[in-house]
Write a structure and sequence with these properties.
The protein is an alpha+beta fold and 227 residues long. Helices cover 59% and strands 16% of the residues. It contains 5 helices and 7 strands; from the N terminus they run ααβββαβαβαββ. The strands form 3 sheets. It has a 3-stranded antiparallel sheet with strand order 1-2-3. Helix 4 links the parallel strand 4 and strand 5. Helix 2 crosses helix 3. The longest helix has 66 residues.
């Protein structure tokens, strides 16, 4: 048996427990709603963060591209790559013309240097070459450049003019140069040579002979000679 005071105390405790339960249920509902809203916000944050990382990566790439394209850096890079291709082709040509004695390389400043393979691969300036060696080097570079133009151009390069320079060559080098030009001519590229060297003129299959104007008033004439 409960006394009246005990019953009243029990009712008070019950009311407090019900109030506490209702408050807990209310807080639970609020917490559930907050968790739901937080989940939605987190999903939105994850989406925005992924987009931010994508934009950051794109911004980094654009920064690198801007650095590459700054001033003439990109053009210089392409020019350097083209120069390296031409130098490699010219070096191969020069090796053929000099029986693998000389090769062409590009130094750090973008200039040409000669590698003397017959002297342990010593590198020296092109200014140290003799007249005949300079002509062979120029010829190798001209042939390599013409080959690059033919490869890159929309229309094939079918004609190549070479003006003089043969007078500085001895007979052996002259034979080597003529052989290289004949081979080049066989590679579907016509080579025109302007020269007064009799040995060279004798080796050419077809020649355009230019006759100067005569004192009597007759103008210059051109005749064709074929072997």
């Amino acid at each position: 048996m409960l006394s009246a005071d005990e019953w009243a105390q029990t009712q008070t405790q019950l009311s407090a427990a019900k109030a506490s339960s209702e408050l807990a249920l209310e807080k639970r509902a609020q917490a559930a709603q907050g968790a739901s809203e937080l989940a939605v916000r987190h999903a939105r944050w994850s989406e925005l963060e992924a987009h931010r990382m994508e934009l950051a990566a794109q911004l980094e790439r654009l920064g690198k591209l801007q650095a590459v394209l700054k001033a003439n850096a990109f053009v210089e890079y392409l020019a350097e790559e083209q120069l390296m291709q031409v130098s490699r082709a010219a070096s191969e040509r020069l090796g053929e013309l000099t029986r693998r004695r000389y090769a062409i390389e590009v130094d750090s400043g973008g200039g040409f240097v000669i590698r003397d393979d017959a002297n342990g691969g010593v590198k020296r300036p092109v200014s140290t070459l003799s007249g005949g060696e300079t002509f062979l080097t120029s010829l190798a570079l001209a042939l390599a450049l013409s080959a690059q133009i033919q490869l890159k151009g929309e229309y094939p390069l079918e004609f190549f003019f070479l003006d003089e320079g043969f007078g500085t060559l001895d007979q052996e080098l002259l034979d080597m140069v003529i052989g290289a030009l004949e081979k080049l001519h066989m590679d579907s590229l016509a080579v025109g040579v302007i020269s007064h060297v009799p040995e060279l003129r004798a080796r050419l299959a077809r020649k355009l002979i230019v006759h100067p104007a005569e004192p009597s008033g007759r103008g210059s004439r051109i005749t064709l000679e074929e072997l």
